[in-house]
Design brief:
It is a single chain. The protein is mostly helical. It has a single domain, classed as Orthogonal Bundle (Hypothetical protein af1432), CATH 1.10.3210. 70% of the residues lie in helices and 0% in strands. The chain binds fe (iii) ion (2 copies). The site of one fe (iii) ion has 5 residues, from helix 2.
Length: 189
């Protein structure tokens, strides 16, 4: 499938705002990839498809995960939304013919991060937070960082923003996010 064919397919499956968000993430990811010397084609592809399983309702996501042999952790039982990342990674292969492991991994990790994130993983995580359609308190600051500081420094700011939000809601924290954030902090020490 070409990128244009993927866009046509994606536009049919996602609601318009989600489709626009996906295009925005692809654009933001390409910009970051250029800045950090990462393959821009992979960044575009991962950005475009990162939310390709986002149309599944919550209960369906659990079924889809089991059906694909994806391990559903206790936290994902409670917040099935998080599964759109690994389920999307699997669908990127089946439905859109993606075979690139780096792209598949970046899609799988875009929501909560993970241990040993690659530069592409980091770029997709961050592009998802700052793409042009995003609007939340603090987004402008994160957009500025995307042009100034290192990828790890950006990612730390992104994790902090996410965790601050979760804390303010007294919400559950995914352990993979904590692991990924600790790794970044130790690298920056
Ligand atoms: Fe997502
Ligand atoms: Fe997204």
């Amino acid at each position: 499938m070409t990128i244009e064919e993927m866009k046509t397919e994606l536009a049919k499956r996602l609601k318009p705002s989600r489709y626009e968000h996906s295009l925005g993430v692809a654009r933001a990811a390409v910009k970051l990839a250029e800045r950090f010397g990462v393959d821009t084609k992979k960044a575009e592809l991962a950005g475009l498809l990162h939310d390709c399983a986002r149309e599944f309702p919550q209960d369906k996501l659990i079924d889809e995960a089991y059906h694909r042999g994806i391990i559903v952790s206790p936290i994902e039982q409670v917040i099935p939304f998080m599964l759109h990342a690994p389920v999307g990674a699997s669908r990127a292969g089946e439905l859109y013919g993606v075979t690139d492991r780096d792209v598949i991994e970046a899609i799988a990790r875009h929501t909560v991060g993970g241990k040993g994130m690659s530069d592409l993983d980091k770029i997709i995580y961050y592009a998802d937070m700052i793409e042009e359609n995003r609007d939340y308190p603090g987004v402008e600051e994160l957009r500025k960082l995307a042009e100034t500081v290192s990828l790890d420094e950006m990612l730390l700011a992104g994790f902090d923003q996410t965790l601050a939000f979760v804390l303010s809601k007294h919400g559950l924290m995914h352990p993979d996010t904590v692991v990924a954030r600790n790794e970044v902090i130790m690298r920056l020490m």
